[in-house]
Amino acid sequence: MTRDIAVFTGENGETLSLDNPGTITVYRREQGQWSFNRAQEFILDKERGIGGIRRQLAELLDFLQECRIFAAFSVTGMPYFELEKAGCRVWEIAGKPKDFLDYVFLEEEKAREQNGNQGTEVKTPAPVQVAPGCYQISLTGIQAGGTGVTSKQALLPFLRQGVFYSLEVLCSHIPPWLEVELAAGNLEGITERINKDVVKVLIRSKLCAQL
Question: What average pLDDT score do residues 106-119 get?
């Protein structure tokens, strides 16, 4: 069985945020072994505007061909949504490909098997309202793997709507994409370690606070 995984890396060979210049390398798994398949440099030029970025992402997807697993340190904004819209499974993961290709492959296979056994798509967890304007969600199960859902799929659409006062997030670690969202300006977060396995992030919407 053949599987392809595309990885975006920097000069040091480790995964890189898609906002930075780097290289997309497609690795192919055949008979239990990974091998280099193809590579292409990629620089996302935001000065080209929305239309230019979309064209660049279309070229990226053409390069991926049938590969629908994409790994990088961080993928946010339009690149994330364009990849997801094209049916790509986006992994945000740190390190060198040799350290995580097997892990990503096995998690994807587990998700595929679970979806097949259930006969339906896995339902994406969503924040639950516990008081007017106040929500909670746990990402620990998602981050443990095997659910077929990413933390970004579960949480980012809710954050982008921005219609909440507070959101309590429980996670094993703060996802890189969430750190980027908190730094963007419209959200503020307070982090507290509950125990060695769980971190709590209390997120407040600055926009709602002004209403």
Answer: 70
Specify the pLDDT at position 146.
Answer: 61
Nearest CA to 159 out of 194, 109, 201, 118 is that of: 201
What pLDDT is stored for residue 115 in this prediction? Answer: 61
**Fold of domain 3-118:** Nucleotidyltransferase; domain 5 (3.30.420)
Q: Which contacts of 181-189 are long-range, i.e. CB under 8 A and separated by 24 or more positions?
A: 181/76, 181/156, 186/162, 187/159
Domain ranges (residues) in the chain: 3-118, 128-209
Out of 19-33, 109-123, 132-146, 151-165, the most confident range is 19-33
Instruction: Tell me which H or E stretch contains 85.
Output: helix 77-85
- What span, in angstroms and rounded, lies between the C-alpha atoms of 182 and 20? 19
Round to whole Å and give the CA distance between 111 and 104.
11
Question: pLDDT by residue (tens digit) across 43-88?
Answer: 998 888 888 888 999 999 999 999 999 999 888 777 877 887 788 8
Burial class (CB in 10 A: 0-12, 13-18, 19+), 198: middle
CATH class of 128-209: alpha beta
